[in-house]
Amino acid sequence: MSFRVKFMVQSITDYGGDALSVSFAAIYDPTIPEDANFTKWTPTGSITMSITNRDVIARLKPGVKFYVDFTQVEPVETPAS
Fold it and tell me: Rounded distance, CA 37 to CA 42, Å?
């Protein structure tokens, strides 16, 4: 199972050091069909991440939108001991 949603960068906080805290909010616009597909049932959502990759950080600005794909991970069988 998988589904796609759009999230927008809400804020970026630099606490010093190597990582930034980036907060994303789900896009809610029921007039856009691809947004309405997800937001009809889940109109709000947030993701907060600590990011250390400076190449990624350079692309993140408040207001920029990204697709986020959720794909279910199948259970991994653990070998018998």
Answer: 9
Q: Which domain holds residue 16?
A: 2-69
Total-model pTM: 0.76
Q: Show the 3-state SS of 7-73.
A: EEEEEEEECCCCCEEEEEEECCCCCCHHHHHHHCCCCCCEEEEEECCHHHHCCCCCCCEEEEEEECC
Contact predicate 73/2, CB 8 Å? no
How do residues 10-38 score in pLDDT, each as one tens digit?
999 988 888 899 999 988 777 877 777 66
Give how many domains the chain has, as a whole number. Answer: 1
At 2, list the tokens: 């998988």
